[in-house]
Amino acid sequence: MCKPYRQTPHRVFDKDGNSRVLQDRAEVFATHYATAQWHTAVLPPLPDRPALFPTADLPCGRFSAYELRQVRARLKKRKSPGTDLLSNEIICLVLDTDIGFINSYILELMNLCWTNITMPQLWQLARIVAIYKNEGATTLPQNYRPIALLQAMYKVFTSLIERRLRVLEPQLWKMQMGYRSGRSTDDANHLLLRAIELTLRWQNIPLYLLCLDWKKCYDRIHIKRLLQALRRFGASGSIFADT
Predict the structure, then answer these.
(1) How many helices (H) and strands (E) does the chain have?
(2) Which of the two ends of the chain, N or C, has the fewest CB atoms closer than 10 A to its terminal CB?
(3) CA nearest 157: which of 203, 207, 122, 181?
(4) Measured between alpha carbons, how far is 119 from 113 in angstroms, rounded to an integer?
(5) Distance of CA 227 to CAs 26, 224, 243, Å?
(6) Distances in Å between the alpha carbon of 193 and those of 176, 182, 185?
(7) Helix extents (H) in the chain
(8) Dist CA 174 CA 182 (whole Å)
(9) Measured between alpha carbons, how far is 225 from 207 in angstroms, rounded to an integer?
């Protein structure tokens, strides 16, 4: 019989190269995330740039029950909960019940956050799970991939906003495959292989490829730059409040 798997925590080294005891593991990882993994450098202001598209007709009013049902249909099951220990299955069960006042309370909470341009502070907390990358020393924090487990209501709220921003999707470049419904990297790989095949068939035709690998690009998001890009795409309304 196989022995049951037992997780074995390892000692880690801090940013100064000092070996820390097991009890300091969380503190070492937190310091690494704050000063390296998620640290964003101060960038100079961008010059004013013209809009790429006219102002889009983004919904800016209160969220409707229909929008909440759309979000419920997209909640993924069997996902680990955040600090609230509230799973997506519970949210789906509540939204599927015939008890109308519960759904009304959830919808009213979402609309209060939207109209008042604020969120509960607890929604900004997340459980961070460090997953080893299976490469490099297990004693170094940079060899672990942090996964943020968010609170259920926060995911519902951000999903409502994301659904409204989908109005801008037709303005994206048609060759962008990531994070788009009905598209995948398989489509991009097929187009790349097809381009290479045509180049080999029609000789004397040069083919130039530029491959970029952004290091920790999703860990170091500059919020103001991202909002400026959305403005150029025609977004407007409450998402730019206090920015």
Answers:
(1) 7, 4
(2) N
(3) 122
(4) 5
(5) 33, 5, 8
(6) 16, 20, 12
(7) 25-32, 65-74, 88-96, 100-116, 152-165, 185-201, 223-232
(8) 12
(9) 33
Low-confidence ranges of the chain (pLDDT < 70): 1-10, 98-100, 238-239, 241-243
DSSP state of 61: S
Q: Could you give the 3-state DSSP secondary structure of residue 181? A: coil
d(CA 175, CA 192) in angstroms, rounded, equals 11
Residue 121 φ then ψ, to 5° = -60, -30
Which pLDDT score is estimated for 110?
94
Local structure of residue 35 (DSSP, 8 states): I
The whole-number pLDDT of residue 98 equals 63
- State the Cα–Cα distance between residues 62 and 73, nearest whole angstrom: 20
For 74, 86, 104, the CA distances from 93, given in Å and listed in that order, are 13, 12, 15
Residue 127 has a pLDDT of 92
- What pLDDT score was predicted for residue 160? 94
Instruction: Supply the pLDDT for residue 3.
Output: 62
Tokens, residue 47: 């010059």
